[in-house]
């Protein structure tokens, strides 16, 4: 059974809960999910992953969290050509500009965004969003 890495940053747990639900979907789809906080993962270790998922809330002013996630994504960009990547994250008040920018950035580096766009939710994920993430996990397992 091959593993799918889900790497996330979460300050207050909203994006963490999204990551965990995505992981459940991956396992339901028949693959092992490796759900990790960004602090414990080196971008280089994902070099060979054909499929992976990344999560981060909107921080700063519509940007990725800047201490850990932003440098991680910046380093990962050199490896993403041809990869299938699912994106997700929570936000508090904006218009999801951070997610649109993140999608575009990875597409420009040659990645395919699984599902066409990142999954976003206002603050804590509701049941509908959790269902979407579960289904996305199953889709990742088959990608
Ligand atoms: C320092 C800081 C900056 C934030 N900036 C934004 C922002 O620009 N746009 C937005 O929609 N939400 C913003 N938020 C709200 C978070 O995205 C929101 O609280 C989210 O649910 C946090 O997810 P987490 O629980 O995974 O950390 C910000 C929150 C903090 C603490």
TrEMBL record:
Q: Which PROSITE patterns match?
A: FLAVODOXIN, FLAVODOXIN_LIKE
Q: What Gene Ontology terms describe what this protein does at the molecular function level?
A: electron transfer activity; FMN binding; oxidoreductase activity, acting on NAD(P)H
Arranged from A to Z, the UniProt key words for this protein are: Electron transport, Flavoprotein, FMN, Transport
| Claim: Glycosyltransferase is one of the keywords in the record | no
Which SUPFAM superfamilies does this UniProt record tie to the protein?
Flavoproteins (SSF52218)
Organism superkingdom = Bacteria
Among InterPro entries, the record links this protein to: Flav_short, Flavodoxin/NO_synth, Flavodoxin_CS, Flavoprotein-like_sf
Q: Which cofactor does it need?
A: FMN
- Keyword Electron transport attached: yes
Task: List, for all copies, the residue spans of the domain called Flavodoxin-like.
Answer: 4-141
Per its database record, what is this protein's job? Low-potential electron donor to a number of redox enzymes.
Q: Which family does this protein fall into? A: Belongs to the flavodoxin family.
Q: What is this protein called?
A: Flavodoxin
Its source organism is Anaerocolumna chitinilytica
Gene name in the database record: fldX
């Amino acid at each position: 059974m091959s593993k799918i890495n889900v790497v996330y940053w979460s300050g207050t747990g909203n994006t963490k809960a999204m990551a965990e639900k995505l992981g459940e979907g991956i396992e339901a789809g028949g693959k092992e999910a490796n759900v990790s906080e960004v602090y414990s993962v080196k971008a280089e270790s994902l070099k060979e992953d054909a499929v992976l998922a990344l999560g981060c809330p909107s921080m700063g002013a519509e940007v990725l969290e800047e201490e850990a996630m932003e440098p991680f994504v910046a380093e990962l960009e050199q490896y993403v050509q041809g990869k299938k990547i699912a994106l997700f994250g929570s936000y508090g008040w904006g218009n999801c500009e951070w997610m649109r920018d993140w999608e575009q950035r990875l597409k420009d580096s040659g990645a395919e965004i699984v599902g066409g766009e990142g999954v976003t939710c206002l603050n804590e994920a509701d049941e509908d969003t959790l269902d979407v993430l579960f289904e996305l996990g199953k889709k990742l397992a088959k990608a």
